[in-house]
């Protein structure tokens, strides 16, 4: 249930102030602030391309809720990464599923909706489940970065998620791919094996391919469709 109007206004103002104040702060510092401010009403969401955000969040607040959307279309390696994160980090892993199984969705909309109407498929299997999962919280964190797509170039370290009526924390917003790779190597962070096999951005298996040398890092997502976002961060 969304917060009352006065509380939403307070949270929006808090997000704006903290976004400016925490710009340039280390991701763990950003996450520590959010964990202290929101307590059990703060969670992170991870697509399990790696365990970086979960690892950082576990340092900030051991036992933190980690939301993972199991769309029914994930690579086996992604499910394995989720299981490894749950087994090796002090986090509370919450697996969220769509209201319909893949078979039930196929029966209602026809097979391979992801090929015919990828936006509808993402809405059913990602956007709605995340909205449901985030309903108990006042703030959530994602691992998106400014250098990933043009749509993400202006994201704040802390910002107001107006669509969901909650604070959104992007602790890795200012990090580059080189910084991510360096931190992962130096701290032994879990990585989805597909990342070493040409998959620079990992989503659902039917809509993800390897990225060729020189291509944009998200060129392998919905290739040929002019689509780069699933709707979770727009």
Give a description of the structure.
By secondary structure, the chain is of the alpha/beta class. 39% of the residues lie in helices and 12% in strands. The protein has helices at 5-21, 27-38, 52-60, 76-88, 102-109, 113-116, 118-134, 177-187, and strands at 42-45, 64-69, 91-96, 139-141, 158-161, 166-169.
* SS field, number of helical segments: 8
Radius of gyration: 17 Å
Unreliable spans are none
Strand order of the largest sheet: 3-2-1-4-6-5
The global form is: globular
- What's the end-to-end separation, in Å? 21 Å
Total strands: the figure is 6
Largest sheet: 6 strands, mixed
**Beta-sheet strand percentage?**
5-15%
Helix and strand pattern:
HHEHEHEHHHEEEH
Query: What value does the average pLDDT take?
Result: 93
- As a percent range, the share of helical residues equals 25-40%
Global structural class: alpha/beta
Task: List the topology elements.
Layout lengths: L4 H17 L5 H12 L3 E4 L6 H9 L3 E6 L6 H13 L2 E6 L5 H8 L3 H4 L1 H17 L4 E3 L16 E4 L4 E4 L7 H11 L47
Helix pairs in contact: 2-3
Key words describing this protein structure:
globular, 234 residues, 6-stranded mixed beta sheet, alpha/beta
Give a short synopsis of this structure.
39% of the residues lie in helices and 12% in strands.
